[in-house]
Automatic annotation (TrEMBL):
Family listed: Belongs to the folylpolyglutamate synthase family.
SUPFAM superfamilies: MurD-like peptide ligases, catalytic domain, MurD-like peptide ligases, peptide-binding domain
Protein name according to UniProt: Dihydrofolate synthase/folylpolyglutamate synthase
Assigned keywords, A-Z: ATP-binding, Folate biosynthesis, Ligase, Magnesium, Metal-binding, Nucleotide-binding
Task performed by this protein: Functions in two distinct reactions of the de novo folate biosynthetic pathway. Catalyzes the addition of a glutamate residue to dihydropteroate (7,8-dihydropteroate or H2Pte) to form dihydrofolate (7,8-dihydrofolate monoglutamate or H2Pte-Glu). Also catalyzes successive additions of L-glutamate to tetrahydrofolate or 10-formyltetrahydrofolate or 5,10-methylenetetrahydrofolate, leading to folylpolyglutamate derivatives.
Stored PANTHER family: DIHYDROFOLATE SYNTHETASE-RELATED, FOLYLPOLYGLUTAMATE SYNTHASE-RELATED
Catalysis: reaction(s): (6R)-5,10-methylenetetrahydrofolyl-(gamma-L-Glu)(n) + L-glutamate + ATP = (6R)-5,10-methylenetetrahydrofolyl-(gamma-L-Glu)(n+1) + ADP + phosphate + H(+); (6S)-5,6,7,8-tetrahydrofolyl-(gamma-L-Glu)(n) + L-glutamate + ATP = (6S)-5,6,7,8-tetrahydrofolyl-(gamma-L-Glu)(n+1) + ADP + phosphate + H(+); 10-formyltetrahydrofolyl-(gamma-L-Glu)(n) + L-glutamate + ATP = 10-formyltetrahydrofolyl-(gamma-L-Glu)(n+1) + ADP + phosphate + H(+); 7,8-dihydropteroate + L-glutamate + ATP = 7,8-dihydrofolate + ADP + phosphate + H(+)
Pathway(s): Cofactor biosynthesis; tetrahydrofolate biosynthesis; 7,8-dihydrofolate from 2-amino-4-hydroxy-6-hydroxymethyl-7,8-dihydropteridine diphosphate and 4-aminobenzoate: step 2/2; Cofactor biosynthesis; tetrahydrofolylpolyglutamate biosynthesis
Pfam families noted in UniProt: Mur_ligase_C, Mur_ligase_M
Domain Mur ligase central: 48-202
Species per Swiss-Prot/TrEMBL record: Corallococcus caeni
Residue ranges occupied by any Mur ligase C-terminal domain in the UniProt entry: 294-415
Length: 437
């Protein structure tokens, strides 16, 4: 493979890597970081694993650290619209020219990436860790891709780790029991480095605590060591190992964000104890101003269009709780797309009977499951199901159905691929409307 010579060519090189490729193992990432003189050691990090809630937790923590005056690097995945979203410093996506330059710098120091290409996620992780070093961040917040034990981000150097709720997802890689999946998530634990654990199913919790004990890892456990409860005047109250906070408000919507906020506050307490200065006031500001697109996000009105990244049964369960709290009684018109390797049955059985109509769509990924493959299953669960050839058709169909019913709500869910595509479509249509005005 020819080496890219310009930032533009470097971005094309990166985008040509297989975005769905998965190689479990840390050897390539560790070799690359060694060639770069270990940039991951230049700053303390919070490392977050789990099945659901990772991104929101990371967003809360990063925003609070910024409110405390820190220069913060945030690495998350997947992106919704542009890959630049994955790598942020001080809340800003990495610019194209800087992104391309960082790729060139990594390839110059680690040319093996040209002859033995890394996966998209591996290479992106290395570029992120390198970029954070070059930008001299004070602290980094890192979200795992999947699992933990063999995830590329596990080559980082955390001072605190965290595991959000563990449930069934990526079973072909992580195992078919909660005990096995939690054991893979526990792979981010480092000897002596404290971990924050959300409430877990007993089987998952047992696996996580057992591994923590083996490594001598101090544990902060939700419900035992910290928690968040309703306060007065629609606010929340937090009680943790070090902080007692009242009058908390959350920028992110949905009842499930309360747990993510509690876990984020416990992570901030742990970071403070490990020398990353952050005050309760900054933590409060972070929770009140954090942004995390694609999670119960309203994109348009007339009719209301909402996107949510729920893509497994546990994610759908918390989504339904949020719909009951925020949109009770409104006719629901689903735009639904799913990748072939997901456990679609429980998601469909939870969502489809509640819908007035379901519009099945293909996704823009080789992993997409064609609507024709599961339309028969869908029609058992909802009386009006339509399979569409494109997302544009599916979204238009759901909107047309919603307009015909009072207070109709369009909800696009089932995959983060779908959420990103809907955001692009809505942004384009809004832009076209503005140009016509």
């Amino acid at each position: 493979m020819d080496a890219p010579r310009t930032p533009e060519e470097a971005l094309r090189f990166f985008q040509a890597l297989n975005p769905s490729g998965i190689k479990l193992g840390l050897e390539r990432v560790r070799d690359a970081l060694a060639s770069l003189d270990h940039p991951e050691r230049d700053y303390p990090a919070l490392h977050v694993a789990g099945t659901n809630g990772k991104g929101s937790t990371c967003a809360f923590v990063a925003r609070a650290l910024e409110a405390a005056g820190h220069r913060v690097g945030l690495y998350t995945s997947p992106h919704l619209v542009r890959v630049n979203e994955r790598i942020r410093v001080r809340g800003e996506d990495i610019p194209d020219d800087v992104f391309g330059q960082r790729i060139l710098e990594v390839l110059e120091r680690y040319p093996s990436a040209l002859t033995d290409p890394m996966t998209y996620f591996e290479f992106g992780t290395v570029v992120a860790l390198w970029h954070f070093s070059r930008e001299r961040v004070d602290v980094a917040v890192l979200e795992t891709g999947l699992g933990g034990r063999l995830d590329a981000t596990t080559a980082a150097n955390p001072v605190v780790t965290c595991v959000t709720p563990v449930s069934f997802d990526h079973m072909e890689y992580l195992g078919h029991t909660l005990r096995e999946i939690a054991g893979e998530k526990a792979g981010i634990f480092k000897a002596g480095v404290p971990v924050v654990l959300s409430k877990q199913e007993p089987e998952a919790l047992d696996s996580l605590v057992r591994r923590a004990e083996q490594l001598g890892v101090p544990v902060r456990l939700e419900g035992r060591d910290f928690g968040i409860v309703p306060g007065s005047n629609d606010t929340l109250s937090y009680r943790g190992a070090d902080w007692s906070l009242d009058g908390i408000t959350l920028a992110l919507r949905g009842p499930y964000q309360r747990q993510n906020a509690a876990v984020a506050l416990a992570c901030l307490e742990a970071l403070q104890a490990r020398g990353v200065a952050v005050s309760p006031e900054a933590a409060r500001e972070g929770l009140a101003t954090a942004r995390w697109p694609g999670r119960l996000e309203e994109l348009a009105r007339g009719p209301t269009v909402v996107v949510d990244g729920a893509h497994n049964p546990a994610g759908v369960a918390v989504l339904l709780e949020a719909l009951r709290a925020l949109y009770a009684g409104r006719p629901l018109h689903l735009v639904f797309g799913v990748v072939a390797d997901k456990d679609r049955g429980p998601m469909m059985r939870a969502l489809f009977p509640l819908a007035a109509s379901v519009h099945l769509t293909p996704l823009d990924t080789p992993r997409s499951l064609a609507p024709e493959r599961y339309i028969a299953e869908a029609r058992v669960l909802c009386s009006r199901v339509v399979a569409h050839a494109s997302l544009e058709e599916a979204l238009a169909g759901a909107r047309a159905d919603a307009v015909g019913r009072p207070d109709g709500l369009v909800l696009a869910t089932g995959s983060l691929f779908l959420v990103g595509a809907v955001k692009r479509l809505v942004d384009r249509s809004l832009g076209a409307m503005q140009q016509q005005q």
